[in-house]
User: Which sequence fits this backbone?
């Protein structure tokens, strides 16, 4: 059993029953010229976590955990894109429009690719999701059930939108979830801080939080006992 010095209290899990879910580490959100930047956001904030996410992936791979990557991506004909999502706000470009990295958030376009440092390895699971939550209109629930998962680790972007939404979906489905604090980020630092507090409030009402170093130390300690 791995015991992480997390907040609001220790988080315990068995690696063989745990999946790491890395949310939407896509070029369109993280790289200059992508969709995130066209919305007026500072993508450097998100790019800064890439090395930590890579380190987290390496640690979980070494522990032989299930690794799942998600991408926010719609069908080319936009049949899975509600008008309320496409038409919200007043952006320079909308989902489906031609951007600097191809059509924005469309499956198969360069901008939907996961950034190279965090790219999936052969055999790792990649899920394209049409919504903010990774359980909505995807096979994620079935995948986790078939693998016997009981615990989930989370990383990725953005903290308060797709990451938190998926954690809340997971909570409703009975999973114990840990968010890696320095492997997630928002375009709005205050939103990330608030999300962390909401997740671990009231005795981990949604889940736990810990740093990548705290998780790595726990995995190392468990490995020494084998």
Assistant:
């Amino acid at each position: 059993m791995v015991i992480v010095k997390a907040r609001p209290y220790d988080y315990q899990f068995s690696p063989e029953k745990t999946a790491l879910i890395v949310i939407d580490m896509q070029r369109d959100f993280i790289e200059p010229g992508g969709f995130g930047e066209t919305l007026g956001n500072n993508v450097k904030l998100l790019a800064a976590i890439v090395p930590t996410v890579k380190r987290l992936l390496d640690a979980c791979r070494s522990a032989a955990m299930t690794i799942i990557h998600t991408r926010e991506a719609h069908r080319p004909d936009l049949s899975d894109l509600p008008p309320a999502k496409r038409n919200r706000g007043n952006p320079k470009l909308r989902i489906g429009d031609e951007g600097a990295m191809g059509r924005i958030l469309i499956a198969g376009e360069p901008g939907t690719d996961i950034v190279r440092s965090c790219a999936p390895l052969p055999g790792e699971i990649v899920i394209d999701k049409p919504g903010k939550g990774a359980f909505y209109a995807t096979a994620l629930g079935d995948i986790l059930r078939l693998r016997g998962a009981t615990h989930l680790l989370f990383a990725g972007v953005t903290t308060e939108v797709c990451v938190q939404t998926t954690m809340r979906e997971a909570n409703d489905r009975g999973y114990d979830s840990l968010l890696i604090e320095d492997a997630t980020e928002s375009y709005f630092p205050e939103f990330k801080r608030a999300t962390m507090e909401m997740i671990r409030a009231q005795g981990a009402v949604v889940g736990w939080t810990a740093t990548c170093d705290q998780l790595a130390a726990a995995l190392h300690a468990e490995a020494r006992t084998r």
About this structure: The chain has a mean pLDDT of 97. The beta strands are 2-4, 11-13, 18-23, 66-72, 98-99, 102-103, 125-129, 151-157, 176-185, 208-210. The chain is about 35% helix and 20% strand.
